């Protein structure tokens, strides 16, 4: 039986009435995305049409999922909300704080020892507030959610950008910052700008070396890292129905890499099969009763151009295997063209590591397809030229894969089986074969490949591919290897060719597991004590941010003008910094240390306008804060791209930054800034970015009249006394302006609860 089956049945019981009401309000047939959105309105039954990309709408999500790195700050905030229990089903998953080094049998005990304080905190706070807790080693949050909680037609938010993975089971699942999750945990509405809709029509059928991963690698190449911003991507067509549920999950997972709000597929037989295979026949039966509401209306898919803001069509029968990268997940290259492109750009040809797993590709099907290639290497006497690392998606996957002999196949190639956790995908990788910053190449089946992400080395060229392609390239040891046409020299001196991969959608003997790693909360957590050591380096109780004084902001200094791509990895790095995710002051020592200073093209090296000296960004900002001087951060396009981590908003707020002024924001980061009481604004004229100089002072002329749809005027005073007056846009509505006035959204929640 599924978790929370009564909640799921309630969602389905009211779906028909709400979808019909939405269809009447909108005045035309509905996409799947619209059906789910309109059936989850905070006010219940739809009565009006919302304008895509413009109207802010309040929703009532069905559940929340949090991973351990972001859950710390989310739950520290929730503890201040004055609630006895979470208002909707919520789970915490311990998957980010486990470093991959020697293998699961060594790494998991080591992580439990080094992060026991954090795990104990998360377990106790979960127990107190009615939150389901998945222990370290239980699995990667998004695979565990797919196996246990995701359901067609549902709405979920999660404190991780790849929450969108649950679209593989027909959900609208959206990554958010912890403050958004706290709103819903506290029984309040969740606000989102009503998304635009991108339709992707899939025709034909995958075959040979092409996999579901190649669909999203192709889409990323089309849309780029910001082409999906503010939109839901909805996949449909005969090609969509031909893919497995976990394959659909892979596609939805990497929708985060094009900036999409989320991605989803209509309910079909593959989803029903997966639900039944994961002991949720009750969900499949319930979904079948309302299945007409769990996919787009037929008229929509027959004439998609009339119902979507943008339509992309991909013929799966013609799609070729891809590798995307390096340094960005949208640089798409067909395998057949990699040799020429690598030579043109001087990418290192020799491949040092092949890494398989992560939340994107760690299902049973993924492992079987990769194992089919690994087994050929063993059988055909081909010695792997690269090192191998495997991260199973969950303990259920690992246990079943071990039972069925899949892991042994990889071990026969001397692969290291890492813990059921994120590991190298998020920078939790103690890579033994590299020192310094040597130029090198790795291939992996993950989702992101930003500079330094996997191993901290800015010269590691990381390429993203399917598990089976990663296996083939790692075995060959060459980036330019095309398994569809190239041969390999085996130990007998013979040239042999790899056959096309084969895989199993679901385990023939069924899934099995001895201990899935789940701890249910006690029914009454009122007596549970949550302890935080005041001298801890890992955890710190939060102090509220100060409200706005209602006055114009004047005399603000420039902290940094960031050049080019500035992701949340640049603003708040992961890797070794993950250990401080529950301690705001300590983790603030990584604030913007990865951002490139536009005035000297260096990282973590900015001018202190008080002393005229150069220092690290956090150290400089702490001096401004001590002197009572407000500061401004200036950035380029798609500022805050990447992870949902709200630390990227909380750290500058904690250190005293008042304003982030950029050309454009990534969706989640803009919301996170608003939630934390920060002023996040954009240049009305993008070229004004070029006017900003290193010694600038900012005076806000009309902030006292802060109002929706009203531009802000800023006087920029340069060191020579000259001035430029620029205009800035913002997207704050009235409730969000109240967050700003109160100092944060959480301050407003506490104020309302106190009343």
UniProtKB/TrEMBL annotation:
Co-factor(s): [4Fe-4S] cluster
SUPFAM superfamilies attached to this UniProt entry: Aconitase iron-sulfur domain, LeuD/IlvD-like
One GO CC term on file: cytosol
Enzyme class of the recorded protein, top EC level: lyase
Stored Pfam families: Aconitase (PF00330), Aconitase_C (PF00694)
Keywords of the record: Iron, Iron-sulfur, Lyase, Metal-binding, Transit peptide, Tricarboxylic acid cycle
Catalytic reaction equation(s): citrate = D-threo-isocitrate
UniProt keyword annotation of Zinc present: no
Membrane spanning residue stretches: none
Domain Aconitase A/isopropylmalate dehydratase small subunit swivel: 557-686
EC number, UniProt record: 4.2.1.3
Pathway: Carbohydrate metabolism; tricarboxylic acid cycle; isocitrate from oxaloacetate: step 2/2
Location of the Aconitase/3-isopropylmalate dehydratase large subunit alpha/beta/alpha domain: 35-477
Record Gene3D superfamilies: Aconitase, Domain 2, Aconitase, domain 3, Aconitase, domain 4
Keyword Transferase carried by entry: no
GO molecular function: 4 iron, 4 sulfur cluster binding; aconitate hydratase activity; metal ion binding
GO biological process: tricarboxylic acid cycle
Family: Belongs to the aconitase/IPM isomerase family.
NCBIfam families cross-referenced by the UniProt entry: aconitase_mito, PRK07229.1
PANTHER family: ACONITATE HYDRATASE B (PTHR43160), ACONITATE HYDRATASE, MITOCHONDRIAL (PTHR43160:SF3)
UniProt name for this protein: Aconitate hydratase A
Species, as recorded: Salinimicrobium profundisediminis
Organism classification: Bacteria, Pseudomonadati, Bacteroidota, Flavobacteriia, Flavobacteriales
